[in-house]
Amino acid sequence: MVGIATALVAIAISVSYLLLIPSQVPALSSPFGVTSQTIPYLAGTLGLAFGGALLARGLIWRNRASDDGIPVQADPESRAGYGRLVLALVVFIGYLMVLPIAGYLLSTAVTVFVLMLLVSRDRLVLKAVLGSATAVVLFVLFAELLNIRLPTPLVRGVL
Question: What is the pTM of this model?
């Protein structure tokens, strides 16, 4: 059941992403017939396809029966995954709300750190370093190499 919920969340995010592209990304064309909206549409379509695949897998798994014909019961540990899924969604929504205020680097580093904490609570220093490194690597990739503007903190000069 967690797989079905995850699939539905992935589909919802992908659909909302696809619906926002025309209003957020101007349609600039290039000499090769590719517009500035091509890659976002490709990413949204891939997200939708993966969400659909997860949904199909979850529905097939739910209806699976064991060799004796008895339906397979959900593992109690998988039910605990619902709480982590809801927490991950809350963290993601919080990330989207804090992003314009705190800027990309700080909010991304903290979000990655918190999401890793949802998986396990050991090696806190390593998780903090990995969260920071992830934010820096993605910042360099998007801001410096691809020249994509990322949100900056409201108070300039802080970060």
Answer: 0.56
